[in-house]
Amino acid sequence: QVQLVESGGGLVQPGGSLTLSCAASGFTFSSYAMRWYRQVPGKERELVARISSAGTITNYADSVKGRFTISRDNAKNTVYLRMNSLKPEDTAVYYCNAYISSYNYWGQGTQVTVSS
Fold it and tell me: Average pLDDT in the 18-26 region?
């Protein structure tokens, strides 16, 4: 079965950096685009970044463009989100997503808190 397991969240000061990882299993990872979303309590889940199956095309939300970088290692079945210049408004639970056969699969999420 499809499994997505995020890691790498934590508490970081404004201006700091974190790298999130999402380990995928149960499907042919290299055949699917992958996405990172984030959600704050009381708000809708927001698409942060997307990467194509081969890793050649990336897209970002305007709010993170120039600060976040999505990447993937198809040999390791892992997608990453490098987050630089973090701001308090980046505080959220971050989720890894795969859209396979018209179904959205989600990881359990990892909390990122940006605070001094």
Answer: 98
